[in-house]
Amino acid sequence: MEIIMAKVYAFLTEGFELVEALAVVDVLRRASIEVVTVSIMDKKNVLSAQKVEVVADTMFADNDYKDADVLFLPGGPGTKGLEAHAGLAHTLKMHYAAGKKLAAICAAPSVFGHLGFLEGKKATCFPGFENELKGAQFVQERVVWDGNIVTSRGMGTAIDLGLSLVGTLVSDKIAGMLAHSIQYK
Fold it and tell me: How would you write 101-160 as a 3-class SS string?
């Protein structure tokens, strides 16, 4: 597999959806994309919504994120914690202003909606969060790209999101090969 120099930061907080986060991380790492899991808590050990403790690679304050190709937000009850983190909001705004890619799944696209990133864009989310996609045209698809933002619906679409990111960051050919190798399609 060709080595592509792409870097993704995945942000974790108490109550994040385990499969949404780690399925995407797994797929990206299988494609040789560097993924850094980041705790926005005051400790590296982060408890998922399913009560599984995950040790993040790094702490939020230990990075400047200028080398990021994608900033990724998993969903779940932890979405409120992601949105409440002032440093993360600032980082997302800077990344968005620079025209870099943003990814979110489940409830987390609401963070982009509240920050005004979805105005005039197509987006998707977990059912019930459609009104939180401020200014967006809701699309009931598994993964939706519009410009530099990709959104996805939930746990059942996490592999789709990961493969879509691989297709964009590496190539559709590699994404297809990866899907076949994991028995996805």
Answer: EEEEECCCHHHHHHCCCCCCCEECCCCCCHHHCCCCEECCCCEEEECCEEEECCHHHHHH
User: Which residue is listed with tokens 């705790």?
Assistant: 39
Q: Measured between alpha carbons, how far is 78 from 21 in angstroms, rounded to an integer?
A: 11
Radius of gyration of the chain (CA): 15
- Dist. CA 73–CA 90, nearest whole Å: 14
Q: Residues 65, 9: contact at Cβ < 8 Å?
A: yes
pLDDT in tens, 39-55: 999 999 999 999 999 99
Whole-model pTM: value is: 0.97
The two beta strands, 70-73 and 101-105, are parallel
> Is 174 in a helix, a strand, or coil?
helix
SS3 3: coil
Please write the tens of the pLDDT for every residue from 95-144.
Answer: 999 999 999 999 999 999 999 999 999 999 999 999 999 999 999 999 99
Dihedral sign, Cα of residue 128, residue 100, residue 30, residue 9: negative
At residue 92, the 3 state secondary structure works out as: helix
